[in-house]
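Case study 2.
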Amino acid sequence: MSHRPRTRTVLSCGLLLVPLAVSATACGGSDSEALSGTPYDAADQITANTPVGTRKADPDKPIEVSVKGDDARITDVTATDTTGRFVRGELSADGRHWRTTAPLAAGSRYTVRVSTEEEDGSPGRKTLVVNTRGADGQLTATFGPKEGEYGVGQPVTAEMSQPIKDPKARAVVESALKVDSMPRVQGSWHWVDDKKLHFRPKEYWPAHATISVHSNLAGLKVAKGLYGGPSKPVKITTGDRVEAITDAAAHQMTVLRNGESINTIPVTTGKPGFSTRNGVKVVLGKESFVRMRSSTVGIAAGSGDAYDLPVHWATRVTWSGEYVHAAPWSVGSQGAANVSHGCTGMSTSNAQWFFNTVRIGDIVKVVNSGGDTMTPFDNGFGDWNMPWQEWREGSALKNKADTTTGAAGRAQDPADDARLRPKF
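Prediction:
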């Protein structure tokens, strides 16, 4: 008994693009008796462009499957990777050829299951296993900061192992760098340069949030000859929302925890010519003792502004040497005048209290100073001084929704750079 081939039924539905998670016979089959039979081995009918033996396929090329002769047609193909995810594919109008239409991953393994049908309706099956070769160039991301608890102002950073200049490649990379927070917030990546990205929410992180950062780059094609490699994920948490707001004109710092004032401290900030930077800074580190020498910040020895001082309870807010620290030599001016070389000085007891109260990532904001505004990226974390819309313009995904469900090499060593030398 002859049966109308299943493929012809498929074609009558006009189905050319085959969603691989759904059978190509969704429009209905022909004679159920033939289709219910045990599938035969269709190995002799199927050809593919896949390598034989131990050779591996080129991930830049699609997987292509065809049938030999005129007695059979392809009715269904599913291609899955090792995680079970389906790969999109396309079946030709005559049912004789199929090919993947989505990029393959480098260094991956695919299982391709091909269903065929003969003129009499007899079903055939063939399974192919395709291994793709690894990439010549591999792109990875190093995330920061290290795992731990941080203040609500701490940005997430990613540094790529290779520079990415092409906007399309940047979009591929950025879409693979995932930031998840609980609770969820509105946020975005911003490309600082060709290798570095920062991620921040529109507002500060919520207090006591959990933030997980990971990469889906592994095996992903970024550009010709460049594929993503594995990257180590990072999980951080935030503590209380701690903000130190210094009014340079009033010579006073107010420290808030979760919106409530917990201390008011008389301070001195930068004098004319050395005015403290305005704007939001983020605590970068804490040193219980540091030697501050004016020569490290370009002040000539022997000049009226030269200094060489032992400093205690120093909380760093810029890489160029701006601290909040104990300044017992200026207690008489604290709360009354600005006499420092750019740092925020306070009594030893207040500096120790501040040192013990704040953590890396907490907010230190200066207002009403004669200094310039803290820059976003070149001297610590001034990310919060960039307006949100401008921040979003630094994303390669212009049309994406801002969300924390979404890509840093060697961390900078303070000993490497004269910018890290302290001043007071």
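The CA atoms of residues 9 and 28 lie 7 Å apart.
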